[in-house]
């Protein structure tokens, strides 16, 4: 049972193709995490997928920050700080997996954690990333 509401939709479009491509990929990877949780996969598989997701996340944030620096985005510091917070927040998932892996409520706790992170990420897309995209449209 992949979490309802986690899917790409037109409301997330920023108009910057590479950002939109990455954002859509991120949502697909979140759905994959829910899928392995729901299928009762081994903890090692869940953790491996979370690590892969985290690598993709860091790559995406690096791309956005490179564009911000290249075009002297005036809100770079704030945007970068949000990226760091979202990255750190997601990194806590690895610790959660390690600490809760034998808990009977592992799936529920992990799903709730991922959903909380997902909502923070969508909020970031709809505010900070859309502001960045409007700026970049004047430069690209």
Question: What distinguishing features does this structure have?
Answer:
140 residues, Four Helix Bundle (Hemerythrin (Met), subunit A), mainly alpha, elongated
The CATH level-2 architecture is identified as Up-down Bundle
Task: Say which CATH homologous superfamily is assigned.
Answer: Hemerythrin-like
Structural class: mainly alpha
- CATH class group: Mainly Alpha
The tally of strands reads 0
User: Which consecutive residue ranges, at least 5 long each, have pLDDT under 50?
Assistant: none
Distance between the termini: 40 Å
Q: Helical content, roughly?
A: over 70%
Number of domains: 1
What is the rounded Rg? Answer: 16 Å
CATH topology: Four Helix Bundle (Hemerythrin (Met), subunit A)
Quaternary structure state of the chains depicted: single chain
How much is the average pLDDT?
A: 91
Q: Report the β-strand fraction as a percent range.
A: under 5%
Query: How many DSSP H or I helices?
Result: 4
- Summarize the biggest pleated sheet: none
Description of the structure:
The chain is built from 4 helices and no strands. The chain has helices spanning 17-38, 43-70, 76-100, 106-137. Helix 1 runs antiparallel to helix 4 and helix 2 (43-70) runs antiparallel to helix 3 (76-100). The protein is elongated, with a radius of gyration of 16 Å.
């Amino acid at each position: 049972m992949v979490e309802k509401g986690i899917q790409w939709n037109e409301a997330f479009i920023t108009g910057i193709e590479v950002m939109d491509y990455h954002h859509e990929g991120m949502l697909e990877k979140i759905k994959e995490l829910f899928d392995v949780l729901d299928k009762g996969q081994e903890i090692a598989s869940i953790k491996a997928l979370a690590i892969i997701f985290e690598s993709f996340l860091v790559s995406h944030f690096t791309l956005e920050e490179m564009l911000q620096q290249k075009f002297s985005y005036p809100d770079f510091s704030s945007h970068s700080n949000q990226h760091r917070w979202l990255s750190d927040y997601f990194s806590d998932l690895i610790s959660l997996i390690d600490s809760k892996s034998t808990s009977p409520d592992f799936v529920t706790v992990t799903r709730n954690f991922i959903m909380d992170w997902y909502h923070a990420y969508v909020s970031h897309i709809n505010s900070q990333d859309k502001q960045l995209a409007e700026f970049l449209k004047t430069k690209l």
